[in-house]
Amino acid sequence: QVQLVESGGGLVQAGGSLRLSCAASGRTFSFVTMGWFRQAPGKEREFVARITWSGGSTYYADSVKGRFAISRDRAKFTVYLQMNNLKPEDTAVYYCSARVGITDYWGQGTQVTVSS
Q1: DSSP-derived secondary structure for the chain
Q2: Is pLDDT at 29 greater than 80 in this prediction?
């Protein structure tokens, strides 16, 4: 089993920045990737960014490229999402995910609200 705990969400004005953190515990030695997804009210959950645990390769949704940066601290089993130049359309609950084998684990989510 894997436990994921997100933190760092909040309310910010458009153009501002936030940094999300996701601390993992459990079967961390088996991680393949960790990532972030988000879900806005009335919309489906969508991919935001992911990082490979061993090599650190990163992937982003087109909507956040150039504004968001995902990183990891392998010693702390923590993944981060630095979000810059935030827009009102970034408002959503942000979920951390971890893939172990073919199984995806999810955190409880953290709310990000961007005011215009």
Answers
A1: -EEEEEE--EEEETT--EEEEEEEEESGGGEEEEEEEEE-TTS--EEEEEEETTT--EEE-TTTTTTEEEEEETTTTEEEEEE-S--GGG-EEEEEEEEETTEEEE---EEEEEE-
A2: no
